[in-house]
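Hi support team,

I've been running sequence recovery on a batch of backbones for a student project. Most finish fine, but this one hangs at about 90% for roughly twenty minutes before it completes. I'm not sure whether the input is malformed or the queue is just slow. I've pasted the structure tokens below so you can try to reproduce it. Let me know if you need the job ID as well.

Thanks,
M.K.
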């Protein structure tokens, strides 16, 4: 039987502190959470798995993946706003995990200059709004401390990546974000890891992304005149695709 993440993972995605990392005070609630967790159907590598309808990733041995329905259940347990089309990927020993999702944004031009200072200010404003939902749900609030990795874009791979250092309930937490540009949309991949192991986790995750690929007809290079175009560029991806992320639920994608 797998070791339950409920007692080992404190934060996920939008980085709210998980109730399951605290001392249990309501045994019945914890039992229900454990039951839901143990019902999740993890699919293990080595194999190639869908991560949205538009792309796939090869997972070697000792990695596993959840489909969209079970990923939603897990994100609910971790007290994170989630969509109906997210996919969990991570090593079986649970030292980190990532969640993939697709946005039908249109083709995003990648010739925009990125102002890291301006983006950080925008992220903090978006997080202030997201904290309202966290308060309404009885979840811990989040404070953005600064960049752990400033935004960086690779023309060779069409990958945009960054990481924000944040704090919740006195615990520092970091999410490493990657946006993988496609023909008429973008896939978000959010890595969740402990701050002290982030560098090693990022290196491992980047290696894993070498096995990521868009399905034929959906790659960035296959863009054709007349395809849908995005109304924003690289900078807005960092702040959540303009204001769209906030509307989707409490600031999802802001980090």
């Amino acid at each position: 039987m797998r070791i339950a993440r409920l007692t080992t993972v404190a934060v996920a995605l939008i980085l709210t502190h998980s109730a399951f990392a605290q001392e249990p005070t309501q045994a019945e609630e914890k039992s229900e959470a454990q039951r839901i967790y143990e019902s999740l159907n993890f699919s293990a590598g080595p194999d190639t798995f869908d991560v949205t309808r538009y792309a796939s990733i090869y997972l070697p041995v000792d990695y596993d993946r959840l489909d969209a329905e079970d990923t939603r259940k897990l994100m609910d347990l971790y007290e994170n706003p989630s969509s109906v089309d997210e996919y969990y990927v991570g090593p079986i020993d649970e030292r980190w995990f990532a969640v993939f999702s697709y946005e039908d944004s249109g083709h995003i031009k990648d010739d925009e200059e990125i102002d890291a200072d301006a983006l950080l200010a925008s992220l903090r404003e978006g997080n202030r709004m997201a904290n309202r939902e966290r308060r309404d749900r009885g979840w811990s609030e989040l404070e953005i401390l600064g960049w752990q990795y400033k935004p960086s874009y690779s023309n060779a791979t069409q990958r945009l990546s960054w990481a924000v250092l944040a704090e919740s309930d006195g615990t520092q937490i970091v999410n490493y974000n990657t946006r993988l540009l496609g023909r008429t949309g973008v896939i978000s991949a959010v890595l969740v890891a402990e701050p002290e192991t982030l560098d090693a986790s990022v290196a491992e995750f980047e290696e894993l992304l070498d096995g990521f690929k868009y399905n034929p007809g959906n790659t960035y290079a296959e863009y054709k005149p007349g395809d849908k175009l995005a109304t924003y560029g690289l900078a807005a991806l960092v702040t959540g695709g303009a204001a769209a992320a906030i509307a989707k639920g409490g600031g999802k994608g802001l980090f």
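--
Follow-up from support: It reproduced on our side and the slowdown came from queue contention, not your input. The two ends are 32 Å apart (CA to CA). No action needed from you.
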